[in-house]
Amino acid sequence: MQIGRVYKIIHNQSNICYVGSTFDKLRNRFGKHKRNNDTCISKYFKEYGVENFKIILIKEYEVYDKKHLLAYEQLWINKLKSINIMQTFKPLKKQFEANRQKNLDRTEYLKNYFQNNKEKNKEKIKEYRDNYREINKEKINKKIICECGGKYTLRHKSTHLKTKKHLNFNSL
Predict the structure, then answer these.
(1) Where is the GIY-YIG domain (predicted)?
(2) CA angle 7, 46, 88 (to 5 degrees)
(3) Strand, coil or helix: what is 60?
């Protein structure tokens, strides 16, 4: 079990409120927010000045891992109507539903793409295959000596492993 902290960063003169969570000390986490320019609070730091914001501990929780802490953070984000853009925690069912339509659309797009570009793709695949063979000719044709005394190339390994010679050697 670890101690996780849910905190809020508030602006002194308005209702701007950002909710976050950490296992770190709050002053260290606030310092990271000040240095980081790609969070949703950073644009407010630039607009109003960092000195007009303060970090306040909402609550400490004993949690097993970051996921549990994110669930508590999401509860506070919903409760305080914060400026957080991303949802930190979604139950699996909601995640599945949110991604379902996107995945269906992507599948349909790919299906249409491959259907409409069959010839083009065949040519690309053939070109890639020929190019790969040319570049890796040595590797493909390298003879490997097996412990049973037989020889094989990588592309015939599975065939060799089924031969009587190899099977008899392994049964001894």
Answers:
(1) 2-95
(2) 35
(3) strand
